[in-house]
Amino acid sequence: MRKFQVTVNGNTYEVEVEELGAGASVAAPYVAPVQVAQATPKAVAPVVPAPVASTGAHKVVAPMPGKIVDVKVSVGQTIKEGDLVAILEAMKMENEIFASASGTVASVNTSAGNMVEANDVIISIN
């Protein structure tokens, strides 16, 4: 008998193989079970919905689901149309979110680290 170590789809098995001479009968191979460590599931960050209350006339919304990496404005800050207001990470890319109107930031409805869905309000502008 000869012993071999075989890996199949990431699982390692130890097998014994018997060499047969001419005219010998075939025996079923012996497969010794090998303990494989179980992978523990990764913790998933909970999805925190953005607050519903927004006081401004213009709303800047998330164009897609993702994670807010940074909010670049604060309540009371004066901004112009096209100013960077937040950075949203989606599909392993950072997407810049720009102001849709000029005015004063009336509310900031999320913070860095929060998950948002498409069309969730990020900030509102008066």
Q: Would you mind describing this structure in some detail?
A:
With 126 residues, this protein is an all-beta fold. It is 0% helix and 44% strand. It contains no helices and eleven strands. It has strands at 2-8, 11-17, 30-32, 58-61, 66-71, 78-79, 84-90, 93-98, 103-108, 115-116, 121-125. Strands 4-11-9-6 form a four-stranded antiparallel beta sheet, with no helix packed on it. Strands 8-7-5-10 form a four-stranded antiparallel beta sheet, with no helix packed on it. Strand 7 (84-90) and strand 8 (93-98) form a beta hairpin. The termini are far apart. The mean pLDDT is 82.
Summarize the structure.
By secondary structure, this protein is mainly beta. The protein is 0% helix and 44% strand.
The backbone outline, from C-alpha atoms, is: rod-shaped
- Mean pLDDT score, rounded? 82
Are there runs of 5+ residues with pLDDT below 50, and where? none
Helix-strand string: EEEEEEEEEEE
Strand order of the largest sheet: 4-11-9-6
Distance between the termini: 83 Å
Rg, please? 29 Å
Structural class: mainly beta
The total of beta strands comes to 11
Which band does the percent of strand residues land in?
Answer: 35-45%
Main sheet attributes: strand count, strand direction, barrel closure: 4 strands, antiparallel
Helix content: under 10%
Count of helix runs: 0
